[in-house]
Amino acid sequence: MLLVKNGRVLDPSRGTDAMLDVLLEGDRIAQVAPAISAPSAEVFDATGMVVAPGFIDLHCHLREPGDEPSETLESGTRAAARGGFTAVCAMPNTKPVNDNASVTRAILERAQAAASVRVWPIGAASRGSKGEELAEIAAMKQAGIVAVSDDGRPIATARLLRQVMDYCRSLDLPVIDHCEDASLAAGAVMREGNQSVRLGLRGMPAATESIAVARDVQVAELTGGRLHIAHLSTRASLELVRAAKQRGLPVTCEVTPHHFTLTDEDLAYDTRFKMNPPLASRSDRDALLAGLTDGTVDAIATDHAPHEPALKDVEFDRAPFGVTGFETALALGLEQLVHTGGMTLMRLVELFTAGPARALGITRRVATGEPADLTLFSSEHAWTFRAVESASRSRNTPFDGRSFRGAPMATIVAGRIVWRR
Amino acid sequence: MLGIEPLTVEQITFLLDQSKPFQEIQRHPLKKLATLRGKTVALAFFEPSTRTRISFGTAAARLGSDTMNLQAEVSSLRKGESLLDTARTLDAMKPDCIVMRHSASGAAEFVARRLEIPVINAGDGTHEHPTQALLDALTIRDRRGSLEGLNVAILGDILHSRVARSNLHLLGKFGCRFTLGGPAMWVPRELESLAPPGCSIRRVARIEQALEGADVIIVLRVQQERQHESALALAEYILLYQLTPERLRLARPEALVLHPGPMIRGLEIDPAVADGPQSCVLEQVTNGLAVRMALLFELIGSAQTESSAVAPAQAKDAADAAR
Amino acid sequence: MRVVEKSQLMSATEIDRTIQRLAHEIVEKSGGTSNLGLIGIRRRGVPLAQRIVRAMRGIDGVQVPVGTLDITLYRDDLSKVAPHPVLQSSDIPFPVDDKDLILTDDVLYTGRTVRAAMNGLFDLGRPQSIRLCVLIDRGHRELPIEASFVGRHVQTSDTEIIEVRLTEVDREERVMLVERVS
């Protein structure tokens, strides 16, 4: 038994904001009430901390199987725990691609043995994510996937997307798409704009993303299936999602911390700032901040994409896309959204909990009977993030050396403290 | 020397002034100095180039230094060795500086950040080609007396031209007015953001508009190898953008015609213009040698400080002490 | 490096008289001035050469051509110079081949400057002869160089420096003996 005492419970699913104790028994929440007495319980003093439902990261790359030098389920989930995440959704672009039940099972078995937090695999939409034939989605669902995606790449054609969405609707699985028009993105390494022209680097215009979002929204309308837009990064895409929601379509979307913090002006030739979709213009970033606040955006997701140093230590053109992000996500959210006065703490917690849960079709609550997953954080604790101290095997973060006000303090998964500061 | 963009007007003027003695030396019967004797210049050309490589090689030789030659075609780069490893291998042979050309923008900075020795950027992707801009500036200044406030027309595929960018940065710092003329998909609006304060950049679709009133015309070469993009048919290019004698007449009578080379006579430039009195291409070559000699002298010829940046001289007559 | 002035070696009048005397010597010992050329070594060798040539004109109306030579590129000890030496142009407006040249400088010390100057001259052509004219010879030669025309011999120690100040460069006119103090 674990008693989390003296914390401020923030639960967006019910609007709770109160000083409450939480008693955990086994892997479930046993009681949520003021001043609980439980003499035989281990006590965790959460004075000065917010007690939230366990954070969910809808989008990450754990690289196992196939690229263990960059990350493993063990190291990746350790980094996730340090970021306050209790569950992470792992994208299928491993080697081999997670496109059938045996790979899904292998991942889950390995996670059972070595992972610090819950690993919820996302299955590929097409075989090998090649964009040709449907993957074995039903079998993977049985094995335990929570969504379907060809991330790394867009789902190749409108026709395939329609098939996938129809099929997944019958299986009650959301489809997550990495929205990108391949012809506009070809050869591009950053956002097209003043900065790309100054640096002499090939850029992809903002329309690269929104053209694909427009396609996907219309296919979603055609099929009635649940569509989730991964790592949305432009104003134009946001407006399309807003309009779709207004029409009552089940479309959700996520934004990453690096996209709401940085812009293309922060990029010189440092490959730690190279990712896809690339850092956008100031105007796009401002639109994302607004969308996070006004509810158009449902979730913050990290798209944690580790690459071992040797892979990133090359000329900008040749470096793979991707930055890590578990350990800085909450702090960046506090810095850019809450401490600026733009957003309430409750709304920020929603973006890490109820929002992602909604996209997945589940609930995330601090209530009796719910899974004992909690994220404890301080919105004031001062600290500096150093890449060399990260639990991830990789160091490709644009935030090395950044000082923050606010940090995760403890992560509880299935009733156990898996990490504390 | 990674690019023109970070340099000040004073630093650029200093380099141009320092090039003058080296222009003179080209006229001596004996052109070889012993100034950099014992020094080694590594020429790391990861992209094919004959003219620039020979120019730097000659500059090094005339100063009395030795060269180490790396050419991409014959190097282990073909075997998949990374740029970082190649740079480290070169560094281990202890040259006094590296002159580098590479097809990736930012490659010179990538190497410079990791090595102790000075790196001269001889062209990185579509980003900068600083010595080209310096030799163009020297040519213009010699013919016109000053770089201030000139009307400069740049013709061609500007988006993919590092020569254009370096020239925009350099002449822009002297308050020049630019008109960029070329195929619209290669003259995007974002180029206008490159203008420093005091300089203006405008884009036009027709070459005639670019040439009207121009003091200096920079003709870019036509790139036929394009990745991820379809090329423009050569006949189209000639029709719209070839610099012919008739079109040249639209510019000021004393207008200078510059070309970074190699020229394709009959494509971007009419032979009569290329060989005409307004063409500066031969001076550009001589000045290229002078500018590169001045740069090598500046970077490796004197008591070295840690930085590879150029600084204007405050040389006292410390020379007295060594008489 | 701090310097302390120790004494004045020559006043403006003495400099002028010495230049006149040097001009006379050169005319006397050259067996004809028609093939002469004076080359001033930058910086202060230049005004000296110009003044000597003017003085020679005053003697028999001889018009001897003058050139200037910057020796920075020919030095063997660049590392001892300031970090970013300024290059000036050399300017020798007459052909050097078969000419009897007179190199002019303010102070002759180790001889390295003159060695560098000769290298520079040989890059330009093949003079018939080269002789050296200096205002002050302070000894301490490190190379086998001698001056044919000397304004004044001065014994010095290693810590001393001779500063020749000429109006064209320094806006005052005298020769000072200064000492380096640590």
Strand content of chain A: 15-25%
Report the average pLDDT across residues of chain A: 97
Proper CATH architecture of the largest domain in chain B: 3-Layer(aba) Sandwich
Helix amount of chain B? 25-40%
Helix-strand blueprint:
The complex is a heterotrimer of chains A (421), B (323) and C (182).
Chain A: E1 2-11, E2 16-25, E3 28-33, E4 42-45, E5 50-53, E6 55-60, H1 73-82, E7 85-90, H2 101-114, E8 118-124, H3 137-143, E9 147-149, H4 158-171, E10 175-177, H5 182-185, E11 190-191, H6 194-199, E12 203-204, H7 207-223, E13 227-229, H8 235-246, E14 251-255, H9 257-261, H10 282-294, E15 299-300, H11 309-312, H12 329-338, H13 345-352, H14 354-360, E16 374-384, E17 403-413, E18 416-420
Parallel strand pairs in A: 1-4, 1-5, 6-7, 7-8, 8-9, 9-10, 10-13, 11-12, 13-14, 14-15
Antiparallel strand pairs in A: 1-2, 2-3, 5-16, 16-17, 17-18
Helix pairs in contact in A: 2-3, 4-7, 7-8
Chain B: H1 9-25, E1 40-45, H2 51-62, E2 66-71, H3 83-92, E3 97-102, H4 107-114, E4 119-124, H5 130-144, E5 151-155, H6 162-173, E6 177-181, E7 200-204, H7 207-211, E8 216-219, H8 234-241, H9 245-248, E9 256-258, H10 271-274, H11 281-300
Parallel strand pairs in B: 1-2, 1-3, 3-4, 5-6, 5-8, 6-7, 8-9
Chain C: E1 2-10, H1 12-28, E2 36-41, H2 45-60, E3 66-69, E4 100-108, H3 112-124, E5 129-137, E6 149-153, E7 160-165, H4 167-170, E8 174-181
Parallel strand pairs in C: 2-3, 2-4, 4-5, 5-6
Antiparallel strand pairs in C: 1-8, 7-8
Protein described:
The complex is a heterotrimer of chains A (421), B (323) and C (182). With 421 residues, chain A is of the alpha/beta class. Chain A has a single domain (55-364), classed as Metal-dependent hydrolases (TIM Barrel, Alpha-Beta Barrel), CATH 3.20.20. Chain A contains 14 helices and 18 strands. In chain A, α2 (101-114) runs parallel beside α3 (137-143) and α4 crosses α7 (207-223). The mean pLDDT of chain A is 97. With 323 residues, chain B is of the alpha/beta class. Chain B has 2 domains: 9-129 and 283-322, 3-Layer(aba) Sandwich (Rossmann fold), CATH 3.40.50.1370; 130-280, Aspartate/ornithine carbamoyltransferase (Rossmann fold, 3-Layer(aba) Sandwich), CATH 3.40.50.1370. Helices cover 36% and strands 14% of the residues of chain B. Chain B has 11 helices and 9 strands. Chain B has helices spanning 9-25, 51-62, 83-92, 107-114, 130-144, 162-173, 207-211, 234-241, 245-248, 271-274, 281-300; strands at 40-45, 66-71, 97-102, 119-124, 151-155, 177-181, 200-204, 216-219, 256-258. In chain B, strands 7-6-5-8-9 form a 5-stranded parallel beta sheet. In chain B, α1 packs across α5 (130-144), α2 crosses α11 (281-300) and α5 (130-144) crosses α11. The model of chain B is unreliable at 305-323 (pLDDT under 50). By secondary structure, chain C is of the alpha/beta class. Chain C has a single domain, classed as 3-Layer(aba) Sandwich (Rossmann fold). Chain C is 27% helix and 31% strand. Chain C is built from 4 helices and 8 strands; from the N terminus they run βαβαββαβββαβ. Chain C has helices spanning 12-28, 45-60, 112-124, 167-170, and strands spanning 2-10, 36-41, 66-69, 100-108, 129-137, 149-153, 160-165, 174-181. In chain C, α1 (12-28) packs across α2 (45-60). The model of chain C has no long low-confidence stretch (mean pLDDT 90). Chains B and C meet through α1 and α11 of B and α3 of C.
